[in-house]
Write a structure and sequence with these properties.
Two copies of one chain form a homodimer. Chain A is of the alpha/beta class and 415 residues long. Helix content of chain A is 21%, strand content 30%. The first copy, chain A, has seven helices and 28 strands. Chains A and B meet through helix 2, strand 15, helix 3 and helix 7 of A and helix 2, strand 15, helix 3 and helix 7 of B.
Chain lengths: 415, 415
């Protein structure tokens, strides 16, 4: 029986888990650039070359010697002879001498001798071969210098960096075709319980459809993991252990859910201990909903016995499984949730028990001229619709016995 | 030449685009539940049945008639005879009569005659057949009633809803195996310019690697779109038009980038007009960086001519293409960015031109006891590394001529 005593505080439970997992070496693999979106770099990337590798114009205009334009104005223009054209995609032929200029378009390479680009807008054509310049330009203006974007051998991206679209762009610009990244976490999912049937079946009297497998699978996929569904196992110790052992051999993380009855909880504990050391890390946390979670580690595989109630299962995923997946994925500070937050005003008084972390599901109602309202979604932890209706959640911490109406709360958004 | 005059303000340009696109009928398709994660429902879903379809215990304990326990306390317990067991996954046999109870585990179906579940914790076994009850329980306590999660024929999820993991759980619980969703937007991407080579190639002198195609492709994928890469087209009108026409026939959205020189901009305009009506919607917006963007619509396909500079291209994607993709995806209020935001304190004075929206890339530096600092990432719009180094961006709006140090700014995070 899981009473109030011996419950581990949530933060302590998470620390025990992450410390234990952190000792296992993280696996890495080589990944081609187009497949590297949203992966995490496992080593630093240095720039193999200068970007750009030649000074390039950032304007349409004329490559000039800046000194030739000094003092030019609309009342006192200077005149430059057009002595060449920079063809796009080709090295300029010849060099810009005093009193001369080359036509150049955005992206064109700066010809030798020039040290600035005069914008078209500040010139007036005199004839085919001559322009009037009505504004001066400084040295280094209107072009991007060799290595100005990134210099050869300088750090381009650091180990642990999440590869966003613009990071792939940087790597493409440097001609880096593949990168070393952490492997995606592999997660095996089991549902347990004699009362559970697959969601695609029509449950006979007394049985219910499995809600947790597809919910947990979606959460894992959003965390970047690769999911294998091991189906539904019955309450017999033999079949449970056999499937759990196979799943733990084949994955970095195994989730089983259901088995929230006393007998099933005991069974869950026994099979984890049987799988291998160190076995159970935490059994029961000071959390509502989600108290009966079991956290274990066997032969390097993290094993989570999640409560059967869908809301409790998702809360435990959020607080324990997700940080473990972030750690395996190579994200720094895996204990920190990545969910965006908004501040809101609680619309009623809420009670809570001291010594326990409460997670309260809420809907958010926009208000004019004030922070939005946080309206708790009431309902039992067996009620999946409360999670579907919720826009987010906030915590009532262990020290608190409740919150008063109009308290400002920080909502973690369930986007 | 694209000067200051005739530039369209950013919000107006976006409204023109979304209004024009909104007239095209959105396409929908049937999607199986496991594939429906992160898709958008295209019609309301009503619950086909009660969930749960029978009252179920939410505790381990005893199914009782609540009235039998009224007044029970540890000093004045009442006694109940154990008259049966609820087997998990089966309909209970028999019914609970006055003074009797059934053993029941979490998830067990409430037997006839009972109207509450007494928790194990509040009972003391007397012998095999008798318990002492030390606390009263009210009618309806510790079980979830038939239809309490969701009632038959009531709305489960509304059209336009993004299917999150918990929403798939709700649908699974209701036995809904497939849903109608909006089709994923199809996006074709072209790069233009005689100076561009594919990023996997080693560029000969004068040429540079294509940065935009892989960056834009990543941005599209993150927006849930399906991307086809049409490669690099040269600056010849014939080859450009031919590829653009094919891409626009095969996609909902086409992006071409590069061609930031005057000649290429004119070419981009001509080919969009040639493709079909209404043609060009917007050419040039009051935005820095990103001014030379071209927005068109031909035969129902949105066509974007994005600036060649990587930073400008990404900014235009963010402000115009992303909202268009959200509209096509069926998301309500597509004009609203989905990026999370944080407030920060600007670390220096910044100038800006009135009448133009400025987007300023920043790094965020955490500070103790205050909002984080927003530190602008300086660099030209041709510099992809500035985007890779940026943690987010903020706007300086059209009415402003700059911001002072210590102004609070709202950072849109580039996660």
């Amino acid at each position: 029986m899981l009473g109030r005593v011996n419950l581990t505080p949530v933060e302590k439970a998470r620390t025990i888990l992450l410390d234990a997992l952190g000792n296992s070496a993280k696996k890495t693999e080589t990944c081609s650039l187009p497949d590297a979106l949203d992966r995490i770099l496992s080593c630093d990337v240095l720039s193999p070359e200068d970007l750009p590798n030649h000074p390039r114009s950032t304007m349409d205009g004329f490559a000039v010697r800046a000194a030739d334009t000094f003092g030019a104005s609309s009342t006192m223009p200077c005149y430059l002879e057009i002595n060449g054209d920079v063809a796009m995609g080709q090295m300029p032929k010849g060099s810009v001498r005093q009193g001369k200029c080359f036509r150049i378009a955005t992206g064109g390479l700066l010809p030798d001798g020039s040290d600035a680009v005069m914008m078209f807008e500040h010139t007036i054509p005199v004839d085919e071969k001559m322009i009037e310049v009505v504004k001066s330009v400084g040295v280094g203006i209107n072009f991007i210098n060799k290595g100005e974007d990134i210099a050869k051998d300088s750090p381009a991206l650091a180990s642990g960096h999440l590869l966003r679209p613009q990071d792939l762009g940087l790597l493409a610009g440097l001609g880096i075709a593949e990168v070393e990244v952490y492997t995606k976490a592999k997660v095996g999912i089991l549902s347990t319980g004699d009362e559970i049937v697959h969601w695609s079946e029509s449950p006979p009297p007394g049985k219910i459809r499995d809600i947790n497998a597809i919910t947990l699978s979606g959460l894992c996929k959003r965390a970047g993991a690769v999911v294998t569904d091991y189906g539904i196992v019955t309450d017999s110790e033999e079949s449970f252990f056999e499937t759990l052992e196979r799943a733990s051999n084949e994955n970095d993380v195994v989730l089983f859910s259901g088995g929230s009855s006393v007998g099933m909880r005991d069974l869950g504990e026994r099979v984890i201990e049987k799988l291998g050391s160190p076995g159970i890390l935490v059994h029961g946390v000071a959390l509502k909903p989600g108290k009966p979670v079991i956290i274990g580690l066997s032969n390097g595989t993290a094993i989570f016995g999640l409560p059967g109630h869908p809301v409790s299962a998702m809360v435990c995923f959020e607080l324990f499984v997700d940080p473990a997946l972030r750690l395996i994925a190579g994200i720094s500070h895996p204990e920190k949730s990545m969910r965006p937050t908004v501040n809101a005003i609680l619309d009623r008084n809420l009670n809570s028990a001291a010594g326990r972390l409460d997670l309260v599901r809420v809907q958010i109602q926009e208000q004019e001229d004030d922070l939005p309202l946080a309206v708790p979604v009431l309902g039992k932890s067996g009620s999946i619709s409360t999670l579907s209706r919720a826009h987010g959640y906030f915590f009532i911490n262990e020290a608190s016995q409740g919150l008063n109406k109009d308290t400002q709360v920080k909502i973690h958004l369930l986007l």
